[in-house]
Design goal:
Mean pLDDT: 84
CATH superfamily: Trypsin-like serine proteases
Number of helices: 2
Number of domains: 1
Number of strands: 16
Distance between the termini: 44 Å
Length: about 280
């Protein structure tokens, strides 16, 4: 059973939710991944105007600071959606630099904006003793609107077995220490599917989606937290169903099992009301 310190370290950006490992994000991983991956994913094959990244500084136990990041999704021309643990001040995360929107590259291209406001879900809680994060969402308002097209939030996630896709700029190599993580310059994608609760050891449920990769040893990892999970709408366009949140099994390593994604459609009313009230 991991202690609280280990749980916090894993939860910082995939798994994230790669993070958390898979999905939770800044946790230590033990497996070696492909250099062409999310871990074992592929370079993006199309333009995702709604993809965003949030640079972060994360304090490590040895006193150094890791420069990493979280994923995010443009859902309004002035708002991006990310994981709550990506902006949780209680675990030492601080935003650094500018949010980058609409680029297939991690450190160039697209449009950059300053963070104007952060609103965490009122029910957010970091998972304790290996438990999943609760209500792991946060909204980030940009200081000015962008021209990029936001993604539509799906009315609901598709059924178990439905094809999905995850995106991220997280490490492509699992490693035992954050200093050994390797972050790609090019956006990574991985085709996945919605899994059953049993496939995620009953860690999913109404507010969390179980996400399974048909590719062995492939899943979101450290630095992917907060990034999107997509499905095809009836018109063929991508729509948002999930946000990378955490690990889907009891193995703390990245890419060795399923991932947990916050079920975004369940929170659609909170998202709309928050944006409306913030003006």
């Amino acid at each position: 059973m991991p202690d609280l310190r280990s749980t916090r370290r894993r939860s910082l950006t995939m798994r994230v939710a790669a993070a958390a490992g898979v999905a939770a994000a800044l946790g230590a991983t033990l497996m070696t991944g492909s250099a062409s991956a999310i871990v074992n994913g592929d370079d993006s094959t199309e333009r995702y105007s709604f993809m965003a990244s949030i640079p972060l500084s994360i304090p490590l136990e040895d006193g150094t600071v890791l420069k990493a990041g979280c994923g995010a999704t443009l859902i309004d021309r002035q708002w991006v959606l990310t994981a709550g643990h990506c902006v949780d001040p209680n675990i030492g995360v601080t935003q650094e630099g500018l949010v980058r929107v609409g680029s297939e590259h991690r450190t160039s291209g697209g449009t950059v904006r300053k963070v104007d406001k952060v609103v965490m879900h009122p029910g957010y809680a970091l998972g304790q003793a290996g438990a999943p994060n609760q209500n792991d969402l946060a909204l980030v308002r940009l200081d000015r609107p962008v021209v990029h097209q936001p993604i539509r939030i799906a009315k609901q996630a598709g059924p178990v077995g439905n094809p999905t896709r995850i995106l991220g700029f997280g490490t492509v190599v699992g490693a035992g220490h954050p200093k050994d993580w390797v972050f790609p310059e090019r956006l990574q994608q991985l085709d996945t599917r919605r899994g059953s609760e049993a496939e995620c050891f009953n860690r999913a449920g109404e507010t969390r989606l179980c996400t399974v990769s048909p590719t062995p040893g492939a899943m979101a990892c450290n630095g992917d937290s907060g990034g999107p999970q997509l499905q095809r709408a009836r018109n063929g366009r991508w729509e948002l169903i999930g946000t990378t949140s955490g690990d889907g099994d009891n193995d703390p390593t990245c890419a060795t099992g399923p991932g947990l994604y916050t079920n975004v459609p369940v929170y659609a009313d909170w998202i709309r009301n928050t944006i409306r009230k913030a003006g």
